[in-house]
Design goal:
Layout lengths: L1 H29 L6 H8 L3 H5 L5 H21 L10 H18 L1 H8 L10 H8 L1 H14 L11 H14 L5 H22 L8 H16 L6
Length: 230
């Protein structure tokens, strides 16, 4: 009985791996609007009813991909951060922002799924997506906390109502950062995502390829000055 249960679990794990792999390939090739469980079933060579036993709907497939993409960009951000732990907060932020940009350039459709126009009719289930979805922001909070302890940190004052809200958010992020430092982290995150998205979606208009990287680097240096007020 135990052996049979183990085989069933292994078979399920393998099928989920194949479904996710096919979903990734479809997302990268055709974009989020074209995602289809029927196409996934064709990709892995099984009847669609077999796929529906594991992933009940397109929304469930989207959730699998959202979690996978959040973890992938989170892994990219964390990849070398341990090695730069002795660096200043600004240097760590600049390096992390560059890794985010490289990930977005390598996976534009995955970045679009996470940070582009919301998928119509889809609401990501917070119980599955909150933890992976806040990995990058949590890293920025760590950096903001580091900056707050550096000589240049001056402390940012926030509105009382916002402060009360941020205090309630501290538990979710497992942080004891001051509300001001949390605002700094959120500003770094939103500014970095915005800069990458503007470049990726061509929102700067015609721009030669050799200008894009120095443009992003200049934006990131400007954003890094926010750490002085955390």
């Amino acid at each position: 009985m135990v052996e049979k249960a183990g085989k069933r679990a292994a078979a399920r794990e393998e099928m989920m791996r194949r479904i996710l792999e096919a979903g990734r390939a479809q997302l990268d090739r055709d974009g989020v609007e074209s995602l289809s469980l029927r196409e996934v079933s064709r990709e892995i060579g099984v009847v669609s009813s077999a796929v529906y036993r594991y992933v009940a709907s397109r929304d469930d497939l989207l959730t699998l991909l959202v979690v996978d993409c959040y973890n992938d960009v989170g892994d990219a951000v964390d990849a070398d951060d341990q090695a730069s732990a002795g660096e200043s907060a600004k240097r760590r932020y600049i390096e992390i922002a560059a890794r985010m940009r490289r990930w977005a350039a390598a996976h534009p459709e995955r970045w679009t799924l996470l940070y582009g126009t919301p998928v119509r009719g889809y609401a990501a289930p917070s119980e599955q997506t909150n933890e992976p979805g806040t990995r990058v922001l949590s890293r920025f909070m760590e950096i903001a906390g580091q900056a707050a302890g550096e000589p240049s940190g001056r402390g940012l004052e926030v509105d009382e109502g916002l402060e009360r809200f941020l205090v309630t958010e501290q538990e979710q992020f497992g942080t004891s950062l001051s509300p001001g430092a949390m605002v700094v982290a959120a500003s770094l995150w939103s500014g970095t995502v915005g800069a990458i998205t503007a470049e990726l979606f061509g929102q700067w208009g015609p721009m030669d390829a050799e200008i894009r990287e120095p443009m992003f680097a200049a934006q990131v240096r400007a954003l890094s000055t926010i750490l002085d007020v955390g």
